């Protein structure tokens, strides 16, 4: 929410119809392709590495990625680990003359990608999921393979064609929204590499990793962990927000792909060979932030907490929340209700009731507009209706900003409307004690003791939802697999 808290101050979303409001609310809540920015779909022209690093286009794309993925994550141990790993991989690659720069992104998503100029990106979510240096190396080698094979550079031409389609659509229909839709649809199609490109990058990456001395089967292990981790995500549709797309969104771990990757590994060595560097890897990630960074606000069940901005609220029962850069989004498990919370600037002299009636959204029932107060904060509420959806709108002044709650329901009822009202009524200022104690979750590396079981250790996790499943996936363990005393495992603690 950090980014939307600043972006919307500069430019308010021009929602001119209820249908458009629902489209924006639900697109952000569950359908757009990198309409949050998809770094795989935007690339700069291939250039010599140093020139590309300094080119304005490359810098713009780099800044957009940082904005989309929460900026950089500063951790000297992890950064040194990644740099050393990349150095080994480059020396063993088909193009040791290429230069790479690596950025660790402050995002809980499990993702990695590369731009044609040799910029590599990995999220701390991916670093947290990997269980040894060989698994990290397998991902970095795969992304390096896309650069070596010029896959992203080839797709740059396709992106240009997509932009041309957009301009043509805009000119023909004289409708900017139609042009934007054409571009969005084109980027959806371009969001993934082709099957052939992915398999080629798999083969190249396994070869690079193996020649660098790493366990070539690490790619198989990590692909399996990715698949199991994806199964733990709430089925809310929110995970399709492009900035939170994970590695599987562009690198599907199909059974066929895993099988082919395993066959590639067999070409280099038998299972059990190659370095894994597990102990050194776990030591490097001990204390790594896990999940959302509180500086941008975070979700705890149905509650959203933003220590830096100093507020919190509780979503209605059954809702799953997702904190994005533009807004806090939520949908209920049945899919018939949704919410969006964002922030705008409204002149102090303009009443919030007048703001709701000002035309930023159409089909307002002007008779439903009422001024109110929520926990001491000036507020106003109204209802807007479309053909299939009904909206309960709130504008609430908190400090110098106005927060907008937009609740949507397919079948409005007094009970649903009361639940929406109760959710807004839960919006309040956090106490100083709450702000000071709002700490991020972190990884803690512990040594298994005699008698320890996965169930026992999972009970120590600061994760109430499916703690045992998450413990197993986080540590690359199978259900029923026994722990060995003396080995190290990852826990998530406060």
> What about the largest sheet?
7 strands, antiparallel
Estimated helix fraction: 40-55%
User: How much of the polypeptide forms β-strand, as a percent range?
Assistant: 15-25%
> What number of domains?
3
Structural class by helix and strand composition: alpha+beta
Q: State the separation between the terminal residues, measured CA to CA.
A: 21 Å
- Using the alpha-carbon principal axes, give the shape: elongated
Low-pLDDT residue intervals, each spanning 5 or more residues: 3-16, 18-52, 155-191, 235-244
Q: How would you describe the overall organization of this protein?
A:
This protein folds into three domains: 32-289, no CATH class; 298-431, 3-Layer(aba) Sandwich (Protein Transport Mog1p, Chain A), CATH 3.40.1000.10; 440-493, Membrane-bound Lytic Murein Transglycosylase D, Chain A, CATH 3.10.350. It has a seven-stranded antiparallel β-sheet with strand order 8-9-10-14-13-12-11, with helices on both faces. It is elongated. It contains 19 helices and 17 strands. The protein is of the alpha+beta class and 494 residues long.
Please give the structural blueprint.
Elements: H1 4-10, H2 18-30, H3 49-54, H4 56-68, H5 76-92, E1 101-105, E2 112-114, E3 119-123, H6 124-129, H7 133-148, H8 151-173, H9 176-190, H10 195-211, H11 218-231, H12 247-250, H13 255-266, H14 278-285, E4 289-290, E5 298-300, E6 303-306, E7 311-314, E8 319-323, E9 328-332, E10 337-344, H15 352-356, E11 364-374, E12 377-385, E13 390-398, E14 401-409, H16 414-425, E15 428-429, H17 432-437, E16 441-447, H18 454-458, H19 467-474, E17 488-493
Parallel strand pairs: 1-3
Antiparallel strand pairs: 2-3, 4-16, 5-6, 6-7, 7-15, 8-9, 9-10, 10-14, 11-12, 12-13, 13-14, 16-17
């Amino acid at each position: 929410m950090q980014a939307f808290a600043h972006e919307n101050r500069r430019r308010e979303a021009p929602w001119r119809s209820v249908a458009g409001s629902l489209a924006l609310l639900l697109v952000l809540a569950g359908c757009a392709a990198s309409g949050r920015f998809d770094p795989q779909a935007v690339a700069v022209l291939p250039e010599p590495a140093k020139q590309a690093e300094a080119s304005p286009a490359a810098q713009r794309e780099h800044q957009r990625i940082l904005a989309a993925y929460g900026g950089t994550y500063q951790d000297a141990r992890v950064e040194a680990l990644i740099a050393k790993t990349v150095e080994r991989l480059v020396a063993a690659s088909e193009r040791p003359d290429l230069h790479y720069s690596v950025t660790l992104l402050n995002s809980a998503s499990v993702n990695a990608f590369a731009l044609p100029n040799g910029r590599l990106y990995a999220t701390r979510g991916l670093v947290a999921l990997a269980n040894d240096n060989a698994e990290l190396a397998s991902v970095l080698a795969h992304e390096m393979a896309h650069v070596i094979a010029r896959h992203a550079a080839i797709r740059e031409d396709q992106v240009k064609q997509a932009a041309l389609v957009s301009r043509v659509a805009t000119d023909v229909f004289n409708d900017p929204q139609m042009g934007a839709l054409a571009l969005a649809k084109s980027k959806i199609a371009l969001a993934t590499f082709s099957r052939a490109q992915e398999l080629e990058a798999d083969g190249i990456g396994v070869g690079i990793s193996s020649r660098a001395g790493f366990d070539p089967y690490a790619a198989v292990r990590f692909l399996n962990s990715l698949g199991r981790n994806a199964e733990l995500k709430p089925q809310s549709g929110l995970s399709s927000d492009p900035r939170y797309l994970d590695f599987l969104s562009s690198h599907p771990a199909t059974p066929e792909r895993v099988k082919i990757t395993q066959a590639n590994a067999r070409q280099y060595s038998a299972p059990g060979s190659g370095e894994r560097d597990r102990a050194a890897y776990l030591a490097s990630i001990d204390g790594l932030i896990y999940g959302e960074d509180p500086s941008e606000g975070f979700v705890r069940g149905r509650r959203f907490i933003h220590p830096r901005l100093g507020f919190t609220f509780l979503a209605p029962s059954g809702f799953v929340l997702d904190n994005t850069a533009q807004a806090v989004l939520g949908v209920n498990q049945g899919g018939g209700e949704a919410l969006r919370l964002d922030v705008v600037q409204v002149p102090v002299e303009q009443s919030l009731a007048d703001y709701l009636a000002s035309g930023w959204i159409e089909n307002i029932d002007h008779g439903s507009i009422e001024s109110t107060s929520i926990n001491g904060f000036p507020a106003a509420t109204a209802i807007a209706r479309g053909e299939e959806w009904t909206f309960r709108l709130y504008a609430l002044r908190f400090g110098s900003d106005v927060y907008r709650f937009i609740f949507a329901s397919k079948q409005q009822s007094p009970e649903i409307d009361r639940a929406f009202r109760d959710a807004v009524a839960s919006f309040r200022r956090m106490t100083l004690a709450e702000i000071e104690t709002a700490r991020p979750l972190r990884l803690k590396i512990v040594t298994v003791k005699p008698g320890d079981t996965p169930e026992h250790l999972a009970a120590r996790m600061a994760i109430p939802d499916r703690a045992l499943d998450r413990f197993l996936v986080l540590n690359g363990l199978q259900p029923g697999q026994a722990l060995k005393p003396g080995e190290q495992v990852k826990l998530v603690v406060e």
